[in-house]
Known about the structure:
Elements: H1 14-43, H2 50-75, H3 78-97, H4 102-122, H5 124-127, H6 132-161, H7 163-181, H8 198-214, H9 216-247, H10 253-276, H11 286-300, H12 305-337, H13 340-367, H14 372-396
Organism: Pseudenterobacter timonensis
Subcellular location: Cell membrane
Main location: membrane
Amino acid sequence: MRESVHTNVSLWSKGMVAVTAAQFFSAFGDNALLFATLALLKAEFYPDWSQPILQMVFVGAYIMFAPFVGQVADSFSKGRVMMFANGLKLLGAASICFGVNPFVGYLLVGIGAAAYSPAKYGILGELTTGDKLVKANGLMESSTIAAILLGSVAGGKLADWHVLAALAFCAVAYGGAVIANLFIPKLPAARPGQSWRFTPMTASFFSACRVLWRNGETRFSLMGTSLFWGAGVTLRFLLVLWVPVALGLTDNATPTYLNAMVAIGIVVGAGAAAKLVTLESVARCMPAGILIGVVVTFFSLQHALLPSYALLVLVGILGGFFVVPLNALLQERGKQTVGAGNAIAVQNLGENTAMLLMLGIFSLAIKAGVSVVGTGIGFGVLFALAIAGLWIWQRRR
Length: 397
């Protein structure tokens, strides 16, 4: 069943500007909150291996609510769903400020993020259409990465000054996202009238899973984006532990600067993908995915700051070029089959399952005493081999 939507082909319509602004503030809060909360764990002497557990709590919320959030996004105006989800994030950040266990507060933020994601990506197909969808995804990713760049640095720098101030600043950012959501046009629900009983909802979600995983194109997109984001979140925690070992620096800000280098690169890579890749030539992005693993392997061996910055910018460029076309492919094919909201919910399940597995393996490796440098090298090699295998499978298909 094809969605009935009202589209505006302009990338700078009122709706697209509001969505982009809301995404910036929301992603800014997400990234600042991560580093502020990590600083809180460090200040309260939590063990190193507990840091990935924080993110596992977050992605666990995605997995737990995956069968429901796609239907929520498609059953209501997506702009209002985004506003409600950002309100949950605001509540989670505020609760950490007021002394609630950081893992509990971060779980609330994760629930908000789980509800937010299908709506924020699904609405792109309602505001733009056709070839503009890849460009809209590039704009969304650029906004996200700018927020990662600024949010990560702000979170780390503020945490070095005062952890509570950093946490409060994150809550303010989420408040800004809620306000921006008010300016998104109230579009009609894509698929109203669906059952809200537990069994039909879960049956509908797993039916969408079967449809997307059985289709060659959408399966290719799901596997590629899952590997990418699983690796991306693991790299973020690898950097936090790698900096004091490889560079001898113990502040909170340096890992955020390194993450910012990746963010800068992704903006460039996303822009290149929007110009060079179409829905019909998505396979062009695959060599970039393989090179991500190769560059991460070389990065893990560095002991100086300047080459580390350069290599992480390159990782970001390759990452942006790799993931943007795969996202656009899934949104377009998903909109035609199971609904954009359901498609993104299925994607979230795959991506967050990959994150959970990779973070779990990373946490176990650190707890078992494997060196951070050795973990980084193994991580890069395995990622390159996984993307190469996916590319070979796609070409044979």
